[in-house]
Specification:
Radius of gyration: 17 Å
Strand content: 15-25%
Mean pLDDT: 95
Largest sheet: 10 strands, mixed
Strand order of the largest sheet: 1-9-10-8-2-7-3-4-5-6
Number of strands: 10
Oligomer: single chain
């Protein structure tokens, strides 16, 4: 374990991916396991050390992946990096509908109710149809790599992280633990049917009681 020092505490080296392609999932949790605070959003529990890593991981990534529910709840606008929205329904989040062509891609499935509208909104080439009734996340990763996005960052949410682990697609889970206890019925960083994935610790950084860890899935 080490402490942040200097502008980023050597985090570029600490968070460098060991190889590509690589899919990293970045999440945040309180000490008692809550992924959100009283607003139901991650912004109610994040802090300055987490923001440093959050910004750095976006900078390092070729593209950002996010579940449609999280994109809507957190109010995601089009980002500086290409953003891949994962949606079984095929509905493009409102704030992303007017993005410049290619800034937002939609990963969905052929049975999606909103597929036709998504194609009209984003353009056929920016709608990735992967699977019939659920999104094939391994195919999504391969498709993005083929498009030149080899360093991939997923920002959740809990259902998407669970599915990435279940389908063996996530290479890494990066998680920030903030030194808070919130109790209540809060979501965890994974949600859905049980999975059992063994992780290998790569690094652990501490700053003002906040722990920033990297775990590899293989």
């Amino acid at each position: 374990m080490r402490t942040l020092t200097g502008p980023d505490g050597g985090l570029r080296e600490i968070y460098a991916v060991p190889r590509t392609p690589w899919l990293r999932v970045n999440m945040i949790s309180t000490i008692d396991g809550a992924a959100t605070g009283d607003t139901g959003l991650t912004g109610s529990i994040n802090n300055a050390p987490d923001k440093v890593v959050f910004d750095l991981l976006r900078e390092l990534a070729d593209a950002v992946i996010v579940g449609a529910g999280t994109a809507r709840a957190e109010g995601y606008p089009p980002l500086a990096k290409p953003t891949v929205v994962v949606s079984r329904s095929g509905r493009v989040p409102e704030k992303m509908r007017n993005a410049e062509p290619g800034r937002v891609l939609l990963a969905t499935c052929s049975a999606a109710a909103g597929l036709a509208e998504a194609r009209r909104t984003l353009g056929d080439e920016h709608v990735l149809v992967l699977g019939s009734h659920r999104v094939d996340l391994a195919a999504m990763k391969a498709t993005l790599v083929d498009r030149g996005y080899a360093d991939l960052l997923c920002e959740g949410g809990p259902h998407l992280l669970r599915d990435l682990l279940d389908q063996g697609v996530a290479d890494e889970v990066a998680c920030t633990w903030v030194p808070r206890l919130v109790a209540g019925l809060r979501p965890r960083i994974t949600d859905g049917p049980p999975v059992d994935v063994h992780l290998r610790l790569h690094s652990l950084v501490e700053e003002d009681g906040t722990l920033l860890g990297r775990w590899f899935t293989h």
